[in-house]
Amino acid sequence: MSASAPSWRLASRGLYSNASSLPIRTHTHQTRSFIISPRRAADDDKPPAPSTRPNPVLEKFLRENPTIPSSAPKQPRPEDIAGDLSASSIFEDDRRAQVQAATSTKVASDDDAEPNKLTRDPRTTLSITDPNPNARERFERKKVIQMVRKGGRLTKEEFVKRTEREHLTKSHNLKTSVKKLGALARQIQGKRIEDAISQMRFSKKKVAAEVLKQLEFARDEAVVMRGMGLGGLDGEAGSESPVEVSGTMDLVAQTKRKEKAVEVQLKDGKRHLVEDRSEIYIDQAWVGRGPYGTLPDYRARGRVFIMRTPWTSISLLLKEESTRVREFEEREAKRRRQKLDNVWVHLPDRPIQTKQQWYSW
Fold first, then answer.
1. What is the overall mean pLDDT for the chain?
2. Which positions carry the signal peptide feature in this UniProt record (predicted)?
3. Which residue, 8, 31, 82, 212, shows the most beta carbons closer than 10 Å to its own?
4. How far is 154 from 164, CA to CA, in rounded Å?
5. 349 pLDDT more than 60
6. What is the tens place of the pLDDT at every residue in 201-212?
């Protein structure tokens, strides 16, 4: 063994006898046994101490389920305040302004009121609902003056708008041209909404499926938003079929429905039978050009052309059959007036007031 070897290496090999300078530990290969002391066993029976770190998942669950008791001590946090807003809310600045105003003025609240509840500032809401009060007052004053001057009378356009229902809807852009979609618009224009849906259901056109979805959407929206197609206000059956009694149609309802049916003549000269005046029909249908898309057109010799793919939308104006009946009656009345204007009517007989009868008018 070299004399230059360190003492700790010699001691580890048992060649260094001075044990006082470096003790030697000997490990015996024995089976380790886990001995649990009585003090440690008593500590294991105790529940673990609650953690002081906040748990956002647990706090969110306890807020959503207030009936479940919470053993962990709750820490006051800004999110637990009733009526508070999240930090990402667009009204966070208003909330901070309310807090600053409440702390600066120190408004005294009742004992029964919640101390952490924040009240909305009516001035902040008023700035959104009524941004220009002077203009609103001038508009209201103008309308009151108009009603006083007219004596409460309405013009023909205002009376029609108040007594008849209509609904205007526009579809999203469809991947087709104006020429192709215009043919379908002319096909459904003037038809009842159910007849137009049947036409689009059995049409061979590719875009007819999209027009069918738009017709169904427009019909449902008109029923929900405008109350169209629901019959009169006096409890009539409306667009529903007559009541069936024991498999046969109610004769009384069928007779009343036939008596109320009116046959009108349309602008194109066709005759049309109106059985239910609340039924929906398509008064106008037109198309509008949308943006153009791009599509590559690969040609010979490695050339690529750019095609412009058109997008088109369709607009529908829905009205009720009562409007069509009114327009027919107005046309008939105008025709009768024009016919009577051309008929010669003799002058009325008047008593003679002067000596010369030819100057008595």
1. 78
2. none
3. 212
4. 14
5. yes
6. 999 999 999 999
Domains of the chain: 92-104+116-153 (no CATH), 170-233+256-341 (3.90.470.10)
Q: Which residues pair with 289 in a beta bridge?
A: 312
Half-sphere exposure of 88 (CA within 13 A, CB side): 0
State yes or no: pLDDT of 303 exceeds 70. Answer: yes
Residue 85's CB is within 10 A of a number of other CB atoms, namely: 16
Cα atoms in the 13 Å half-sphere on the side-chain side of 303 = 6
Strand partners, 50: none
Angle between helices 208-226 and 193-201 (to 10 degrees): 160
DSSP symbol at 261: -
Q: Could you report the per-residue pLDDT of 61-73, keeping only the tens digit for each?
A: 888 887 766 555 5
Structure tokens at 145: 């003056």
Nearest to 250 by CA among 242, 240, 258: 242
Note the pLDDT tens digit of each residue in 242-281: 444 444 446 555 655 666 789 999 988 999 999 999 999 9
Tokens for 316, please give them. Answer: 């529908």
